[in-house]
């Protein structure tokens, strides 16, 4: 969820195991209880979601995370067990999907999105990234 001052809020929830409602006449001993945690979202929390919002495939998301982390072609080849040709093909597909032409531009666009909702200017032909309208939808 985007924050008005920039950045994102991470909302996590889950059912607490074995938590009844306590005593009293209206108590339901085995009723499930839910915990909700709100915290500022880190870059590591947001990047996979943002890449998915761009519509990248699972392999392209893996590659994009490695590219953004500064890994070169040789390291990506070793890490993912794919050829240099495949790395180049995935890189081209990622750049085309995000509408960038370089690793530096990819990093800049995604970093801006991670920092908070942004309106991408007219020089960025794709227009606003899907995340600009809010991850929480």
UniProtKB/TrEMBL annotation:
Top-rank taxon, per record: Bacteria
Gene3D superfamilies: Winged helix-like DNA-binding domain superfamily/Winged helix DNA-binding domain
Domain HTH luxR-type: 53-110
Alphabetized InterPro entries for the sequence: Sig_transdc_resp-reg_C-effctor (IPR016032), Tscrpt_reg_LuxR_C (IPR000792), WH-like_DNA-bd_sf (IPR036388)
Ranges annotated as spanning the membrane: none
Designated name of the protein: LuxR C-terminal-related transcriptional regulator
């Amino acid at each position: 969820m985007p924050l008005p001052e920039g950045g994102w809020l991470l909302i996590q929830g889950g059912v607490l195991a074995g938590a009844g409602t306590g005593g009293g006449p209206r108590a339901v001993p085995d009723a499930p209880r839910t915990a909700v945690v709100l915290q500022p979202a880190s870059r590591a929390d947001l990047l996979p979601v943002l890449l998915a919002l761009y519509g990248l495939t699972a392999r392209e998301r893996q590659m994009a995370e490695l590219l953004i982390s500064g890994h070169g072609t040789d390291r990506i080849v070793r890490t993912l067990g794919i050829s240099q040709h495949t790395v180049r093909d995935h890189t081209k597909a990622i750049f085309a999907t995000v509408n960038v032409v370089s690793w530096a531009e990819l990093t800049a666009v995604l970093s801006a999105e991670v920092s908070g909702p942004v309106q991408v200017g007219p020089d960025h032909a794709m227009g606003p990234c899907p995340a600009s309208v809010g991850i929480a939808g």
